[in-house]
Amino acid sequence: MAETQQEISSVLTETRVFPPPQEFSQRAHLKSMEDYQRLWDEAARNPDKYWGERAREELYWKEPFQTVLDWKPPHARWFVEGRTNLAYNCLDRHLATRRDKPAILFEGEPGDRRTLTYGQLAVEVNRLANGLKSLGVKKGDRVGIYLPMVPEAAVAMLACARIGAVHSVVFGGFSTEALQERMKDAGAKVVLTADGGWRKGAVVPLLKNVEAALKNMPSVEKVVVARRTGDALALTDSRMVAWDVLVNGQSDTCEPEWVESEHPLFILYTSGSTGKPKGVLHTTAGYAVVASLTTRWVFDLREDDVYWCTADVGWVTGHSYVVYGPLMNGATTVIYEGAPTHPGPDRFWDIIERYKATILYTAPTAIRAFMRLGDEYPRKKNLSSLRLLGSVGEPINPEAWMWYRDVIGQGRCPVVDTWWQTETGGIMISPLPGATPTKPGSATLPLPGIHAEILDRAGNPVPKGQGGLLFVTRPWPSMLRTVYGDPDRYVRTYFSELPGKYFTGDGARTDMDGYFWLMGRVDDVVNVAGHRLGTAEVESALVAHKLVSEAAVVGRPDDLKGTALVAFVTLKQGNAPSPELKKELAQHVSKEIGAIARPDEIRFAEALPKTRSGKIMRRLLRDVAAGKQASGDTTTLEDLNVLAALQQNDE
Ligand code: ATP
Ligand code: MG
Predict the structure, then answer these.
(1) Whether residue 492 is found in the same domain as residue 557
(2) Which residues form the AMP-dependent synthetase/ligase domain (predicted)?
């Protein structure tokens, strides 16, 4: 039946539930499910009132708004008449009470350290803002940011926001081509970069990449270069200017550009797990309200927290939860430049111990990598400062969730699995740690004001327990406004599945408690004998095996079955692949979730192909499984060798 074909079969069973620890709830911003429900009901009954109040609470408004929402599907304008400035909200607002509080605790990969207080950060931002103005950057101009994870990255973003320039951060690990493509698409006038950045003990040649890209970025008039490597600066092009020379002598104050709520704040190209990167455009006020609110609620932020989100500013997580969210809340945010396992497997735990980090927000790929390395590294460090753990980026396999909770959180810290996207600007589905009982592998419930629903392609609600397509059925303040330079793609990608309803591209189901379980991207769903299986659940069963570190499951066309399931598996350190282990793993999956999900083929791999943000790229594995040359865009792939190795294995 067409109807059942549209459902995604769910095979995972998970019954563990962890209520919030009492001491945590007592001190939390939201203390109970009653708190959550009350806010949820308020927001659903009167969204304009709810979001209007939130917007007035979260932001300083130079000019108030009258209209909360102007919704002409699929186009939304929020807080229409208001004017504000995001740099003002992140900095000036705090100077009276937090001038000497650390805003940024920075640690470079080589071990160098810097603290920037709110007072110092404001000065850096204002000087650069004035410097950019002196280069002719005006409100609405696009500025590219191609920097390592150093404080300058945050300074650059805030300086743009201060003068109403639109920033477009390109991850420092991206190549010349990727940079070029994005800067051309954005029409950037200025690019901010550094002579290099440290990664795994070596220098990433950022300036060299920019130099090569300059040949093909006609819009770029100036390149501002920060010093990072300690080498003499080689400014090889008349368009290049040293950062310190530019800001030297600039005034410490810079009047903020009071922009209208819908003024564009940034363009961010998505990581491209599924194809050509899209320039997701976010505007100022709506984005800011959600970034600020969710940082405080989801991470239960308190004045004395030392908050560490390990994401790079090249991703949306770095935008919302390294820079804007924490700084709007006056928090102390940790920035670490380098690789998680450099110089040793305990670098993360070392940082947590040294800075006494209280909140850690990282990705399942990192968690699985640490699991693979073994428990002894975190166990040797003092992680007792931690009080909350977060996860984002991919579905977190229940076994990885449990490890995170038990080994890193020592059973004490609530785990928040946060579902959201570049396009949503901020967290959408997540536990509130003082209120929501958590279940390993579930992002739990939508935040108040967020209408996440699981529907079939005809728009009918899918019954609890069955998989379907995840939609957001009402607008929210931090939704993307368009795909930069391609308004049709905005409509086509997000609003053509069901008119007026935002399609996330993800498959999900709800359980009997209404909790959301993300099942993977709809493009990755595998059809086995009439059952559509989400990849995440089959992978989670594999990861639950004690020898397995990571798994990716894809479909391969099969004459007999239509589709055969192929699982790519990496093992924990010290374990060797064998035909017996293949059999054992296939049996393990059958036993855990049923014969339907039993892989037809298991392939051991040293590593899985991932985006530079650490997500498994299943579309490439589909080609490998089918014995084809991997096709499509591979510029966002972290390591081409991984793909080559897999293809070779095949022969
Ligand atoms: P592209 O859209 O270019 O393919 P991308 O989707 O990987 O790239 P992001 O916006 O960074 O880029 O990622 C959002 C996606 O990541 C979600 O749609 C979802 O598939 C996945 N994701 C993020 N957080 C979670 C989570 N907590 N649980 C499950 N999946 C998640
Ligand atoms: Mg996406």
Answers:
(1) no
(2) 92-476
